[in-house]
Write a structure and sequence with these properties.
This protein has about 270 residues and is an alpha/beta fold. It is about 35% helix and about 20% strand. The relative contact order is 0.12.
Length: about 270
């Protein structure tokens, strides 16, 4: 796993990349004029020279700092993944125009709520939940893939937006790199108001190409019943599951499907 910069990087960028490599436990490699493919091959040569095997079945990820932003390449074929508030920007602007947001309708958040997002991904829903929790609330977002956790943590704190409610919401999300079941087991009873799950859909939507590059590197396992049971213990108000509209996961995991909303995705709720 490699951390590097763009080919013409400032000394400050080089230092920032080295710090990121140390934080992640990855290998820092100076870019100079090398392509990413050449960096991967150079690292493979270094591993072979020290007698360490090169696992070709495990994608050699690269994290690149370019123009002040981080870009993650999950494998040799994938496009880069970078932080952007994405649909959260559109959704918050719609709220500002008097429209409603389905997730926030389901969550019924009030100012001051503490929310646990167990499957942060690109953090779009975490941002919306932070907006719903208001100035006194906060969201803890869990992401078990180290590179993605690093990417969104950096982006949430540095991305600048002229939409003040969006920027305020981003700044109130804290990212923790861990798997959600381990985290949930460690929490006290009723320590969060709402616990939210948005795992990889068991049957991907055909138009969800935006997350396709992530599938090669992130945790795509089905949500475990124990995780839901732990979430019920940890939550004070409700546990929410996001899945495709007719997914059998709602019934398997004990969620009551919210049927008052149309669309390709639905939300299941366990009310406490």
């Amino acid at each position: 796993m490699i951390v590097t910069t763009s080919q013409k990087a400032s000394p400050a960028a080089l230092e920032q990349a080295m710090q990121a490599a140390a934080h992640l436990g990855w290998t820092y490699m100076e870019r100079r004029t090398l392509s990413l493919a050449q960096l991967r091959e150079r690292l493979a040569e270094q591993l072979r020279a020290t007698g360490r095997p090169v696992d070709r079945s495990n994608p050699m990820q690269v994290l690149v700092l370019a123009n002040g932003a981080w870009h993650w390449y999950p494998d040799e074929a994938a496009d880069s993944v970078f932080f952007h508030p994405s649909m959260a920007h559109v959704r918050i602007k719609r709220l500002m125009n008097g429209e409603h947001d389905v997730l926030l309708k389901v969550a019924e958040l009030v100012d001051g709520d503490q929310v646990l997002d167990c499957t942060a991904g690109m953090a779009s829903d975490a941002i919306m939940l932070a907006h719903g929790a208001g100035p006194s609330g906060a969201v803890t977002a869990l992401e078990s893939t180290p590179a993605l956790a690093f990417l969104i943590a950096q982006g949430l704190q540095s991305y600048e937006s002229r939409v003040l409610p969006l920027q305020t919401a981003m700044r109130s999300v804290s990212v923790c790199c861990t798997d959600h079941l381990t985290f949930l087991r460690q929490q006290a009873d009723q320590s969060f108001d709402v616990v939210y799950f948005d795992p990889m859909f068991r049957k991907p939507l055909q138009d969800a190409n935006v997350i396709d590059p992530l599938r090669v590197a992130v945790n795509a396992e089905a949500l475990r019943l124990e995780a839901v049971q732990q979430a019920v213990r940890v939550a004070r108000k409700r546990v929410i599951l996001k899945e495709t509209r007719y997914s059998p996961e709602f019934e398997r995991l004990g969620f009551q499907l919210e049927r008052k909303f149309s669309g390709k995705i639905s939300y299941g709720v366990i009310r406490l």
